[in-house]
Amino acid sequence: MSHITISLPDNLKAFVDEQVAQSGYASADDYFLALVQLDQRRRQAKESLDSLLIEGLDSLDRGEGIEATDNWWEQERLDLIESHQSQRDA
User: Fold this and answer.
1) Is 63 left (phi over 0), alpha (psi -120 to 50) or beta?
2) What is the pLDDT of residue 87?
3) Is the pTM for the entire model greater than 0.70?
């Protein structure tokens, strides 16, 4: 495993120490590792979402889209509630 050394102002060092103590991290190293992994997952999710949005916009340009009316959104909402309840009951 590689190592990195960082310098923090006293107030940020105190914040990190507080997070380690309150959140159950074994050390500041573990806290920073968790932050980096969270940021990595967030960036990957954003890239995926951006890709899906572009795909959706491209489909609209090709005339393949659907009109999202109030009725369509209501049906989507009901389907999502039903799906969530089914997963919870399983």
Assistant:
1) left
2) 86
3) no
**C-alpha 80, offset from chain centre:** 19
Q: Could you say which DSSP state residue 66 is in?
A: -
Tokens 């989507």 map to which residue? Answer: 76
Q: What is the pLDDT of residues 32-64, one digit of tens each?
A: 999 999 999 999 999 999 999 999 999 988 988
Spatial CB neighbours of 56, under 8 Å, sequence gap ≥ 6 = 65
Specify whether the CB–CB gap between 30 and 23 falls below 8 A.
no
R_g (Cα) of the chain, nearest Å: 22
How confident is the model at residue 88, as a pLDDT? Answer: 84
Of the chain, the percentage scoring pLDDT greater than 90 comes to: 82
Of 31, 35, 3, whose CA–CA distance to 16 is shortest?
Answer: 31
Contact 33, 25 (CB under 8 A): no
Contact status, residue 34 vs residue 25, Cβ threshold 8 Å: yes
